[in-house]
Specification:
It contains three helices and two strands; from the N terminus they run ααββα. It is mainly α and about 60 residues long. Pfam families: HTH_17 (PF12728).
């Protein structure tokens, strides 16, 4: 599991941007700790990012 800082570095975005994506429901952390901090699975994170970039079916 990665911290938000580590996950953001993996994706090439800032920590704040990744946290904003999560707050906006654009991407979902694997685990939310009792403290409110996120933990990210690298494979799941890449998959979510890839899926978010795909055009959606209009039909």
């Amino acid at each position: 599991m990665l911290t938000t800082a580590e996950a953001a570095k993996l994706l090439g975005v800032s920590r704040r941007t990744l946290a904003r994506y999560a707050a906006d429901g654009k991407i979902f952390p694997t685990v939310v700790l009792p403290s409110g901090h996120y933990r990210w699975d690298p494979d799941d994170l890449r998959s979510q990012r890839r899926d978010a970039r795909r055009p959606r079916d209009e039909g």
